[in-house]
Amino acid sequence: MLFDTHVHLNDEAFQDDLEAVIERAQQASVEKMTVVGFDRPTITKAMELIDAYDFLYAAIGWHPVDAIDMKDEDLDWIKSLAGHPKVVAIGEIGLDYHWDKSPREIQQDVFRRQIRLANQLSLPIIIHNREATEDCVSILKEENAQETGGIMHCFSGSPETAMECIGMNFYISLGGPVTFKNAKKPKEVAAAVPLDKLLIETDCPYLAPHPFRGKRNEPAYVKLVAEQIAEIKGISYAEVAEQTMRNAETLFNIKES
Predict the structure, then answer these.
(1) Which CATH number fits the domain that encloses residue 182?
(2) Does 241 fall in a domain?
(3) Fewer Cβ neighbours under 10 Å: the N or C end of the chain?
């Protein structure tokens, strides 16, 4: 059984065939999924989905690209929703220096405030980091993010950075890019990181794995990620599936199936 730790089933890309997408995921042995909400509309939809499906859980937070739009009442709202028993993390939160919508200092402030909220609520955090590794790691250290730990979502950094994050109580999550033929770093990370510190994800509808690259991603494809990790590590697919499921259930404090 597989746990896709990062899906956006709340995205408009799935509005016309959500049931079929979920059915395909179940046929591919995807037993549990975490739906990530990162602004008002996607958080609202994530909350609706976790009430509708037993096997869906939610992570809620404010995305760094939209940090400039976050108001105090938004953070209060996230805090109030986090009391739901199926909200298992605060995220995705972090830094994104690729897009210039939100100034870096505002991103950093919103990031810090959400780490503090997660620590207050004793919930892990899911980190979005794009072209901001040095600042991201520094803020995690300064804000004592190791208290709750969390996930380095769709990790694209070096094995050295991965090990530094593991030292801060974080899991390393790999998605579609690990299957790309020319993706050197994700494959190196998959080889270097101990299996008990790895998670798998799709980030669907984005970052579809080979051979679906460039098409809409969906949770069923997380099996391809697990298969690639097994091949890189020279272990069985079943071992990867079992351990990453256990890792996710431990992090999210979900009782075993």
Answers:
(1) 3.20.20.140
(2) yes
(3) C
**DSSP state at residue 49:** H
Nearest Cα neighbor of 60 from 105, 123, 107, 113 is 123
Q: Each residue of 31-70: pLDDT tens digit?
A: 999 999 999 999 999 999 999 999 999 999 999 999 999 9
User: Can you read off the two tokens belonging to residue 117?
Assistant: 């909220």
Amino acid present at 218: E
Coil, helix or strand for 90? strand
Q: Among 59, 15, 14, 11, which Cα is nearest to 33's?
A: 59
Is the separation of the CB atoms in 134 and 144 below 8 Å? no
Query: What's the domain count of the chain?
Result: 1
Residue pointed to by tokens 């995705």:
92
* 72-81 helix and 40-52 helix, angle to the nearest 10 degrees: 10
The residue type found at 222 is V
> Per the confidence metrics, is the pTM higher than 0.85?
yes
In-domain check, residue 76: yes
Helix (H) or strand (E) holding 19: helix 18-27
Residue 257 domain-assigned (yes or no) = no
- Spatial CA neighbour of 222 closest among 34, 15, 65: 34
Largest Cα span, the chain? 49
Is 158 a member of any domain?
yes
Distance CA 151, CA 124 (A): 8
Q: Is it true that the peptide bond before 31 is cis, omega within 30 degrees of 0?
A: no
Give the domain extent around 233: 2-251
